[in-house]
Amino acid sequence: MDEVSGTPSGFRGRVTSRDGTSIAYERYGEGPPVVLVSGALGTAAGERALAGLLARRFSVVAYDRRGRGGSGDTGPYAVEREIEDLAAVVGESGSGTALHGTGTGGTLALAAVAAGLSAGPVSVYEPSCPAEAAARWRRVAALLARGRRAAALDLFLADSAVPAELRPGAADLAHTLAYDLAVLDEGTVPERRLDRVHARVLVVDGGASPAGTRATARALTAALPRARHRTLTGQTHEVAPHVLAPVLEEFLTEDREPVGVGAG
Fold first, then answer.
1. Distance, CA of 54 to chain centre
2. Burial of 76 (0-12, 13-18, 19+ CB in 10 A)
């Protein structure tokens, strides 16, 4: 990793993915490594609050997924390239790196481990979506395919938990909604690969999230070989970092056993 510039509590840098794409990251704290994987329209900047809380015990890396923030966007897009991006970040973060993904970032983390990415424990917050949300995703993708980015973004934001402070910059990221749909395998976690995820997994949802979202989280937990489920009372998809952080800390400080043989 080449250091780019210092920040008050860490530094920013870049790592090169297998296809030559430059992936920007931010790193905070010292300790066992944890990589944060953002969801739809998310960037490393949006992970700073959670990263800061976890940095008291961990070395936390948040990165810009391809097409976002300071990262490149070499085409054509493929989920395999995003897995290689994550593998590059994990490879530089250290042995047994844990993963935490929010929304589609959680789906990407699970897909990467299923593909053979060597990692420690994995935690995911509401990584999948119920059928009605999947249908909306497909309508978003159809608009993007016709070049109607603004309409696609409006449709997505009309029924999403994207924080208000992140919405002004969302227009620049609208094209990446198609990437998230690809990660979701047309709207759902790719269940046919879940039996390959042999890492310890914590599936978390919010107690105030829709019933369909919570049912999907429980179904995902049941489909994973080594998973357990946790509901955070009063939380929605826009989970409060100070509520989530201690739950992740407890999970990640349990026995950390690297699993996998490396991403191909």
1. 16
2. exposed
The answer to whether the CB of 30 falls within 8 A of the CB of 60 is: no
**Alpha carbon distance 99, 91 (integer Å):** 12
Q: Which domains does the chain have, with CATH numbers?
A: 2-128+189-252 (3.40.50.1820)
CB 29 within 8 A of CB 10: yes
pLDDT by 10s per residue, the chain, length 264: 444 444 445 689 999 999 999 999 999 999 999 999 999 999 999 999 999 999 999 999 999 999 999 999 999 999 999 999 999 999 999 889 999 999 999 999 999 999 999 999 999 999 877 766 777 878 888 898 898 888 888 888 886 656 555 566 688 898 898 899 889 875 455 566 788 999 999 999 999 999 989 999 999 999 999 999 999 999 998 899 999 999 999 999 986 444 443 443
Greatest Cα pair distance in the chain? 48
Please say whether the beta carbons of 160 and 167 come within 8 A. Answer: no
Residue with tokens 């990263």: 51
Q: What is residue 259's DSSP assignment? A: B
Burial 98-108 (b: 16+ CB within 10 A, else e): bbbbbbbbbbb
Alpha-helix runs per DSSP H in the chain: 48-54, 79-93, 104-114, 131-145, 149-158, 177-183, 211-223, 241-252
Alpha-carbon distance of 63 to 263, in angstroms, equals: 18
Nearest Cα neighbor of 51 from 66, 70, 31, 77 is 31
